[in-house]
Task: structure prediction
Amino acid sequence: MSAERCWFAALAAPPAGAWAAAEARDARGAPAGWLAAWRRSAKPVREAVLADPRAFDPDGAAAWASLVWIPRAVRIVFDDTAVQHARRRVLAESSGAVVTTFARDASVFGGALSAWRGPRAAALAAADPFARVHAARVLHVGPGLLGAGAALPAPVIERYAGQPWPADRFP
Result:
């Protein structure tokens, strides 16, 4: 059996069996679906992408987030200059943020989720560097999904063998 992974998906309805999940609303307060994370070896839903589990916490508080979701028909590799530039900007500018990239496979960038809390959170989400790679949705994410703490210095928002690369260890 393969090792447990962290999967993330944006869904229209509440997810079944998720480890962490929350309802999302757009900047005007209109319902924008559900965001969910699963910790398991097998992909839980067709839409799921690999993510770093440290970005999620079932006890996490609400936050403003920027969700960059790359459609399957669009193929952007992690080594693309735009992705690398966004990564560098996030590491330099995102103090206090929760950040993970998404991996579709060993080399394909599936998007990113960046989240902030506090008085400037909505403005920070609107200025997410990953939004320059592909269109972002600014969402208010309810409690029960997003972790706490600053983005790790590196390379947690990278990928290794199709998974977000662990910053504190190598397989």
